Records
---
Amino acid sequence: MLCARYFRSYRTVTSEGFEHNFALYYLSRFLLGYGLVDQMEKADDPVIMNVAGPGVGAGSIQWDDLGMEHGYDGWSAMFQGGKLNDLLGVSFAAEHRGYRTRYVLLFPGGTRTGFAGEFDAPTAAYVAEMKRIAQPVEVGIVPIIAIVDTPPREPLSAFAEGRRISLLHPSFDKDAAARLDALTRELLRSSSPRTSRPPLRRRSPYVMPD
Ligand SMILES: NC(=O)c1ccc[n+]([C@@H]2O[C@H](COP(=O)([O-])OP(=O)(O)OC[C@H]3O[C@@H](n4cnc5c(N)ncnc54)[C@H](OP(=O)(O)O)[C@@H]3O)[C@@H](O)[C@H]2O)c1
């Protein structure tokens, strides 16, 4: 279950130099999925449930500035994260990887969760209103549990607000997915965490199967 996110009205960078939304909402899901896939492949019916934003029209990927150094705003960063996760699902489920583990992308619709984040005043007001009209977690969780219990047979599937959606959409473009995958692996290879690490972890912590 991949769900972590944290909304930021103001741009923040991790100690590794990654913009915070990019790191938490996308990169952590990339690392967890590929980092745990060998263990998951041994399970009876393995599935990764990536709760994000498939089927959401808003947002685009700033290919030349994934960390949004220029013109950052919290909503664009969040919506970009959703698009990146769509492409992550496409790459993970690509035929050449040959995983048994199914990948599910799911947009739950407005749900009255914690809405973790640091908000400027207008965003805080908007989030309060969203929480007021959103569905309760007890409702939003039902399709998620059903899908995890009985995952679709296909390597990749996508759901929005309880309905399966087509993968024949630019959000799931295979070339864009391959581009992002290559870019991500290059970023991870070239990143050098500034924090000191114990001797046993001197190797890059980001080593994972291709
Ligand atoms: N709620 C909605 O209306 C809605 C709509 C569309 C899509 N989604 C998607 O659903 C997913 C879950 O959203 P949500 O509404 O459940 O969000 P949420 O209530 O804000 O919860 C986010 C979770 O992320 C964790 N988290 C935050 N920063 C973290 C960090 N640095 N490291 C590890 N974990 C961290 C939080 O942990 P702590 O509780 O420990 O702080 C919290 O459990 C997200 O991917 C979101 O994009 C939600």
Note: Residues 3-6, 24, 51-53, 107-108, 110-111, 113-116, 134 surround NAP (CB under 6 Å).
---
Amino acid sequence: MRVTGIIARRGIVLNACVMIGGADLQRADTLTANRQVKDHDVPTHTLYLLNLGQLGSRDPETGETHFNQVPGYLIRSAAGKTILVDTGNPTALIGAETAAPWWDLACNTQSQDDLPQRLGELGLGVEDIDLLISTHFDFDHCGRHDAFAGSDITSLVQRSQLELARDDPRFDDALWDVPGITYQAVDGDLELEPGLRLLATPGHVVGHQSVYVETVDGPVILAIDAIAVAEQMTMPRFPSTTPDAEAALASRDRLLQMAEETGGYIIRGHDDAQWNTLPHSPQSFARPATT
Ligand SMILES: [Zn+2]
């Protein structure tokens, strides 16, 4: 057990409570360090990395297309909840060569990459999901929200993203505004359980959010698009589609600092080189030996 993770958990300052989906959720606005505590009651959650397809772009110099993962994440929480983070590529992209009509990217998504198939590998169906976390509504993150049509599930999304998505054509309503999903607007960070919380990381889009989760193999930060690729760890360079580069930089710096303070392992949102070093579902997450 990593001492650094314990410090992070015990250092959470809880100063507000909200009710979501009938469960008490506590707001974590501030992190402080308390290095006096012992490691006797640290909760851990089991994390699975779901491979929900690939998207690629062409290198202008070599002409070759490099593909990166489209991820989803499943968390079996310490309190017994089954929580899904994002739903991956739309069904329409299975077998497609490009991500049209959504984005001008190459696509490599096969039938086994479809969300229900991946859940099935864990012995789960969409009806087993207790809570859906929507990090944001780009097509490759909400593409299979339609699997929850009629399910009466709650999805947590930042309020600013939810409000923007209704008007901004970047976000395809047909993908995310699905009858049966009740969106619960979140303002800022939110603790779902001890050692499991949403992190507001705006910049890639307004209202983007990441996830912090303490696993048996230490704390993990699911950066999503706040840190999508390895280069962004060291260089403040973001795609041209980033609406607020200043906010994106601040969010990146926040996650880097959190990783340093907690010993957290950052999983980058679309970094195939890293992704290929990690165990994927149905295996649970474990840190690679060398990073
Ligand atoms: Zn993304």
Note: The chain has a mean pLDDT of 87.
---
Amino acid sequence: MPLSPGQLEEIEAQRNQTAPTRRVVAPGMEAHLYTAHPVLDHGFVRVIDYMGDDAAICQAARVSYGKGTKSVQNDEGLIRYLMRHWHSTPFEMCEIKLHVKLPVFVARQWIRHRTANVNEYSARYSILDREFYIPAPENLAAQSEVNNQGRGAALEGEEAARVLEYLKADSARAYDHYEEMIGQDGQQGLARELARMNLPANIYTQWYWKVDLHNLFHFLRLRADAHAQYEIRVYADALCKVVADWVPFAYRAFEDYRLGAVTLSAQMLACLRRMLAGEAVTQENSGLTAREWREFQAVLAD
Ligand SMILES: Cc1cc2nc3c(=O)[nH]c(=O)nc-3n(C[C@H](O)[C@H](O)[C@H](O)COP(=O)(O)OP(=O)(O)OC[C@H]3O[C@@H](n4cnc5c(N)ncnc54)[C@H](O)[C@@H]3O)c2cc1C
């Protein structure tokens, strides 16, 4: 577990505090509050705060004076309708604030999602921990032969051992030099903001990340997808479990209409209609490019 006994104690103290409130609370989310869910070898995600629940989405959609709930069944139907028809603003009424610990190369992908509020641990002010992401052997994969932006089977034997050794040794050496450069025993000590530049992208950073549910779903749609890089996908998967407990109706609608859904182009839809009418459609007579045809076939075969 990546947390020290002192940090675990602080979290436990937070978990033990309660306050009476008139605000809506989501029981599923209360259970997650502050708990650190481990991800990768040193990372985690934990919920620091949240606002709203399934009923809050309906309340906003109906611009209601009361709780917004007509009946549980009505609420789920309304949420599914909103999701199906891209009426997205009611989902923005729910928010979540997370504490995330993640390798820098994962953070670079994550930060591209601009519709969130971020505050990152300052490596100008503080000293970074000696914690590096080292992939488990089954995730030490070869370059994919069919996809430039993907990976193939796991490396094996002597090559796997050598690569692992490089990753560990290079990380350790870079950190040793980092420590030595900022150390002040008998020297001025290089500024932390400069010394960090020789650290590799597998070192861990941390941030607080606040986002509304609509934009979180957009993030999860892209990053929990099978094509997303494994190292960010595992964070998205952990978050999917949290969101499923927080807003179960909205999450189910998201799974059905986004995560498990596909987009067909006009040409693909035309092909599908011709197939359903019994016509033998091939790539040559489909009007699709070879790559589009492959992707279309993959959708049909799934
Ligand atoms: C599989 C995959 C591969 C990728 N490969 C690359 C790559 O090779 N190189 C690379 O640079 N990036 C890459 N990305 C990142 C990608 O291009 C997006 O930057 C990232 O997914 C964030 O998506 P977003 O902009 O929709 O999200 P957000 O920034 O959260 O924005 C959400 C939505 O808000 C709107 N929006 C936000 N800001 C603006 C703005 N300034 N102007 C207009 N509209 C805005 C857009 O509609 C946007 O979709 C990749 C992403 C994925 C999932």
Note: The chain is about 45% helix and 15% strand.
